[in-house]
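2024-03-11 09:14:02 INFO worker-7 job=invfold-0412 stage=load source=structure_tokens
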């Protein structure tokens, strides 16, 4: 099994190009099932979750060609589709569930495995099913699979989500764009990745518009066009490298981004005292002096993202005083805390709140990655720790970070995979 070995306390400088967003690519890939025409996607991140989704789409019947040098992918569909998404392709990646809506809309039936378990919480799919049932689907759960049918096709409906879910909003949209008539979805998630999927769907010929802050109007269509789309940058990857730069950088510039999308994160980093030069499409982070403690809570966009919670905790370890994090999205998302403690971190958790005391001198240790964002928080901690850190189970990182070692090495980090 592969490990990362990091020698910390090295000052980093240079520049990093941010990759395309994994969480935008996955629903956009699922959306390509709607059309029989060719689709070209640019700026896709070549990470494990994207490959898993590609394998699922190929299994279903899409032809997909990837140009690895250019991060471009082309789909075309000329084979007969299967309406099955098997367990072996969903056990490692929950976003596979997103094929349910398009398959149901197009073929009026689908059998999709319930996704595998997840370290960060229970992560049920009840809200996905709630939306699809409103659109007229009949869904039974049997032998670990969702058996869904819509004998007379999906019909437009009013869907009011009882709570905000990124995936369920995507499922609802991906089914409604091809349902007969009008759908109104309210209390939906408005993450930039969903907005990027909507931009793609419009190019594909869908009639979809926001009619309120969390309200979407869709008029269904069966006519889709051939199109090309450049996926939005990965704001979580950007946030991760901003934190790395604030921790151990002397001067690091992050390119291929839109700063407007991460205003919450920028505001927080400024409050912590991080020195940055912010332009429309790039940010330069300068060497940090004293870092201030802060209190944050994770929330749906535009709030602070749960996917940056583990990383910001590492920056809080460098801040003077006690910082507080309240995790509101997932019930079990402090898995990185015991590992950070093994490196000398002073963190106490009470229910969904973590109290982080700093500044702390971290020391290298052998640690274990538990999920994607927890693993990268260990990388950040290791970059700022004395001596060597060995991170086990790095396959979690490969699910979502493109060329992590290469990007950090370019900024002179001492990081190696064995
Ligand atoms: C997506 C992101 C993930 C991010 C999360 C929250 C992708 C591929 N993944 O995950 O990186 O951490 O948004 O920003 O985009 N819930 C239910 N029932 C459901 C669905 C969700 O109760 O049917 C709950 C979840 O358990 C969680 C909350 O709703 O407590 C939010 O989850 P959701 O927004 O759906 O996350 P994902 O779409 O799975």
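2024-03-11 09:14:09 INFO worker-7 stage=emit residues=418
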């Amino acid at each position: 099994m592969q490990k990362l070995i990091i020698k910390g306390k090295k000052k980093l400088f240079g520049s990093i190009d941010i990759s395309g967003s994994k969480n935008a690519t996955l629903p956009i890939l699922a959306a390509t099932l709607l059309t029989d025409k060719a689709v070209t996607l640019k700026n896709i991140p070549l990470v494990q979750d994207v490959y898993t989704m590609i394998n699922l789409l190929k299994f279903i019947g899409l032809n997909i060609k990837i140009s690895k040098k250019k991060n471009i992918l082309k789909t075309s569909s000329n084979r007969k589709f299967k309406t099955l998404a098997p367990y072996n392709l969903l056990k490692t990646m929950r976003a596979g569930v997103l094929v349910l809506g398009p398959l149901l809309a197009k073929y009026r039936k689908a059998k999709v495995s319930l996704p595998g378990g997840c370290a960060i919480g229970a992560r049920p799919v009840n809200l996905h099913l709630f939306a699809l049932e409103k659109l007229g689907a009949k869904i039974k759960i049997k032998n670990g699979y969702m058996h869904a049918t819509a004998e007379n096709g999906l019909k437009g409906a009013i869907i009011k989500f009882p709570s905000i879910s990124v995936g369920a909003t995507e499922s609802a949209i991906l089914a409604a764009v091809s349902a007969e008539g009008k759908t109104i979805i309210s209390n939906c998630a408005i993450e930039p990745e969903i907005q990027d999927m909507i931009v793609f769907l419009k190019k594909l010929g869908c009639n979809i518009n926001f009619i309120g802050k969390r309200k979407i109007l869709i008029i269904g269509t069966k006519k889709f066009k051939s199109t090309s789309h450049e996926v939005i940058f990965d704001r979580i990857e950007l946030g991760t490298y901003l934190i790395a730069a604030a921790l151990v950088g002397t001067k690091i510039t992050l390119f291929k981004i839109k700063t407007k999308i991460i205003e919450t994160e920028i505001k927080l980093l400024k409050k912590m005292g991080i020195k940055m030069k912010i332009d429309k499409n790039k940010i330069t982070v300068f060497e940090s002096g004293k870092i201030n403690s802060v209190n944050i809570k994770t929330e749906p966009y535009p709030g602070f993202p749960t996917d940056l919670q583990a990383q910001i905790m590492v920056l809080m370890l460098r801040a003077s005083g006690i910082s507080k994090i309240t995790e509101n999205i997932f019930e079990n998302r402090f898995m990185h805390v015991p590992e950070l403690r093994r490196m000398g971190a002073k963190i106490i958790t009470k229910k969904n709140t973590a109290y982080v005391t700093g500044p702390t001198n971290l020391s290298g240790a052998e640690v274990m990655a538990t999920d994607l964002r927890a693993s990268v928080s260990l990388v950040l901690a290791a970059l700022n720790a004395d001596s060597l850190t060995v991170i086990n189970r790095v396959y979690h990182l490969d699910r979502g970070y493109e060329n992590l070692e290469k990007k950090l090495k370019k900024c002179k980090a001492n990081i190696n995979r064995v």
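2024-03-11 09:14:09 INFO worker-7 stage=report msg="The CA atoms of residues 204 and 272 lie 42 Å apart."
2024-03-11 09:14:10 INFO worker-7 job finished
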